[in-house]
Design goal:
Blueprint: E1 4-9, H1 14-24, E2 30-36, H2 41-51, E3 55-58, H3 61-73, E4 79-82, H4 84-92, E5 98-101, H5 109-117, E6 121-124, H6 127-144, E7 147-150, H7 153-161, E8 175-182, H8 200-204, H9 213-221, H10 223-236, E9 243-247, E10 253-259, E11 264-268, H11 274-282, H12 296-299, H13 313-324, H14 328-344, H15 352-363, H16 372-393
Parallel strand pairs: 1-2, 1-5, 2-3, 3-4, 5-6, 6-7, 8-9
Antiparallel strand pairs: 8-10, 10-11
Helix pairs in contact: 2-3, 4-5, 5-6, 6-10, 6-14, 9-14, 10-13, 13-14, 13-15, 14-15, 14-16, 15-16
Bound molecules: NADPH dihydro-nicotinamide-adenine-dinucleotide phosphate (NDP) and magnesium ion (MG).
NADPH dihydro-nicotinamide-adenine-dinucleotide phosphate binds next to α1, α6 and α9.
């Protein structure tokens, strides 16, 4: 079997580490072309020793020189590059077959889009990229013939439950609704008046999943589900009213597809991202992911509830932004990134997150999107607007 060359954007993060774990189980199928990191240089160093990539990409020249010297000492041939252009280069290089897009936030958009534009097989974890630029992103997928495979566990589940010809329109293939499951995060049952005082550590302590800080806070506020609602609309060409969010605290049913004949197909499994990663890597084949078999008797119960709109205002804001269209989702995403960072730095309370997002959505008028520059401008303006809110509070 010829091995496929893979670039892992965001290799040092939670998804990146899980991806390399799956790849290491299948050295006969995959070879690592490039690994990228941003601040965790020791992790990237260790990954280069283990996976021997052709390239590593870091943020700046000083980091690159240091890592290059350490790798040379260890006798590793990896060439270390730096900067945003290098990220796009290792994503779009002619030799690359597969790109795992696992950088967090807006920073992941340019290299992910670069991979899409040259028709790679793109494993999409970086939901923010799609939320920001949905129409352009999906048009680029169609134009280049890129194969986009969702890594987000819910979207991967939906993909597995969809008929193969879903691109012809949900109505044409008998799909009535998509049921997007949500764990409800760590604050699902906390008294509402305590939410203003929760700490970053509490917000990051997700009951079922171990993830990076930003998505953990998004899960606690349910902005994650808001971003995922938008993600599902773009990936499956669904209208927002065709996507229903259902709180499912056990995180065993990863999402469901409801058909007009009354059939409901679901994908289940232990909450471990190596399952969707292995699925997308090998699709349409199946490979071992290292995830243990689901023990239904141990699971015993599957509960489902409606999300509480008062507890989770971010869900409403995301629906509103998607319906407003144009650059509104880029504004939503950027304001959320600033708000989450400020919460993690303990500059604001948890319940200020939706306030900042709503403020930014009210300050800026969305414009129709024709090119990426408009998305990047809306992103910058929304960051500025959210920063001004923070400054006015300080
Ligand atoms: P992490 O925070 O664990 O990892 C983020 C990765 O992005 C790291 O490799 C980090 O480098 C890199 N990075 C951060 N900022 C920049 C930047 N400005 N430029 C370049 N690289 C950068 O996040 P996760 O792995 O949890 O999530 C990654 C993406 O996958 C997110 O979009 C998230 O929403 C999505 N996702 C994650 C899931 C999960 O289970 N973790 C589930 C579903 C989706 P470094 O660490 O070296 O600083
Ligand atoms: Mg998810």
């Amino acid at each position: 079997m010829t091995r496929q060359w893979i670039t892992v954007l965001g290799a040092t993060g939670s998804i990146g580490v899980s991806t390399l774990d799956v790849i290491a189980r299948h050295a006969d199928r995959y070879a690592v072309f490039a690994l990228t990191g941003y601040s965790r240089m020791d992790v990237l160093h260790a990954q280069c020793l283990q996976h021997d990539p052709l390239f590593a990409v870091v943020a700046d020249a000083a980091q690159a020189d240091q890592l290059q010297a350490r790798l040379q000492l260890a006798g590793v041939q990896t060439r270390v590059l730096h900067g945003c252009e290098a990220l796009a280069e290792v994503a779009a290089d002619q030799r690359v077959d597969v790109v795992m897009a696992a950088i967090v936030g807006a920073a992941g958009l340019p290299p992910t889009l670069a991979a899409v534009r040259v028709g790679k097989r793109v494993l999409l974890a970086n939901k923010e990229a799609l939320v920001m630029s949905g129409a352009l992103f999906m048009q680029a997928v169609r134009d280049s013939g890129a194969r986009l495979l969702p890594i987000d566990s819910e979207h991967n589940a939906i993909f597995q439950c969809m008929p193969s010809d879903y691109a012809s329109g949900l109505g044409n293939v008998g799909v009535r609704r998509i049921l997007l499951t949500a764990s409800g995060g760590p604050f699902r049952e906390m008294p509402l008046d305590e939410l203003a005082h929760v700490t970053p550590a509490q917000a990051c302590a997700h009951p079922n999943w171990s993830m990076g800080q930003k998505i953990s806070v998004d899960s606690a506020s349910m902005m994650n589900k808001g971003l995922e609602l938008i993600e599902a609309c773009w990936l499956f060409d669904a209208r927002p009213e065709q996507v229903e969010v259902v709180v499912h605290p056990q995180s065993v049913v990863h999402s469901l597809v409801d058909y007009v004949d009354g059939s409901v197909l679901a994908q289940l499994g232990n909450p471990d991202m190596r399952t969707p990663i292995a699925h997308a890597l090998a699709w349409p084949e199946r490979i071992d992911s290292g995830v243990s078999a689901l023990d239904l008797l141990l699971t015993a119960r599957l509960d489902f509830q409606a999300p509480d709109p008062q507890r989770f205002p971010c869900l409403r804001l995301a629906r509103q932004a998607f319906e407003a269209g144009g650059t509104a989702c880029a504004i939503l995403n950027a304001a959320n990134e600033i708000a989450v960072q400020a919460f993690l730095e303990q500059r604001i309370g948890f319940t200020d997150i939706p306030v900042i997002i709503e403020h930014s959505l009210n300050c800026l008028s969305p414009v129709p999107v024709k090119e990426l520059a408009q998305v990047m401008l809306a992103d910058a303006q929304a960051r500025e607007c959210a920063q001004q809110w923070l400054a006015s509070r300080a």
